[in-house]
């Protein structure tokens, strides 16, 4: 893990231990828990918020989706990150150091993908929130903030396992995603994390709000 950083990991479960890692158990689908969260451990030089938690939700065409799943997917993918960004800006506004917000977005937020309507629309909303935030900060002279929306590409994680396991009768691209795995075309989570860290360490090299990890 990067030296000099203290990392706070927010999720429901954790099986990782590191000297400079602190696990913060939280269910990001719970409005009360997310609203209560405060950023009270700020870095002197730099404080970074990475909105990484996400879920693919129901993989099925419109007409067959479950109402609760639609709500939960939007909550975890876009509402919780929006609440956290709002709290982050409020809690860090008087902080002297640099502040950086990185949302883990997806190519799926830029074009439609069969049976992923909820996931696609949740990521599109996240991107536009971040673009608006970036403009707001710029027009108010808040130059200590940097905002990025990062598309990681297809990464070999539990989410890809879920995608491969989706019912092929409901998900017309099922075969394509299974081939990505068998053809070893998924990128590694370590490589994605390394590239994310490059953006954190060298934000000025990434002047656009939207960054694709496939591009470097
Ligand atoms: N993998 C890809 O190919 C790919 C492509 C494009 C974008 N992305 C994006 O990359 C990000 C990471 O995805 P991933 O592939 O690593 O997915 P993943 O393997 O399914 O991991 C999801 C992460 O989100 C956390 N999470 C999910 N629901 C949560 C909840 N209710 N409360 C708290 N934490 C929750 C999980 O932790 P717990 O289960 O412990 O809570 C886990 O750490 C997501 O935003 C995803 O949309 C992934």
Short précis:
This protein is 39% helix and 15% strand. By secondary structure, it is of the alpha/beta class.
How would you portray this structure in words?
The protein is an alpha/beta fold and 216 residues long. The protein has a single domain, classed as NAD(P)-binding Rossmann-like Domain (Rossmann fold). 39% of the residues lie in helices and 15% in strands. It contains six helices and six strands. It has helices at residues 31-36, 67-92, 117-139, 158-164, 174-182, 189-201, and strands at residues 7-11, 21-25, 46-51, 98-104, 145-151, 210-212. The strands form two sheets. Strands 3-4-5-6 form a four-stranded parallel sheet, covered by helices on one side. A two-stranded parallel ribbon has the order 1-2. Helix 2 links the parallel strand 3 and strand 4 (98-104). It starts with 6 loop residues before the first strand and ends with a strand. The mean pLDDT is 97. It binds NADP nicotinamide-adenine-dinucleotide phosphate. Residues 11-13, 26-29, 52-55, 76, 104, 106, 152, 154-155, 157-160 line the site of NADP nicotinamide-adenine-dinucleotide phosphate.
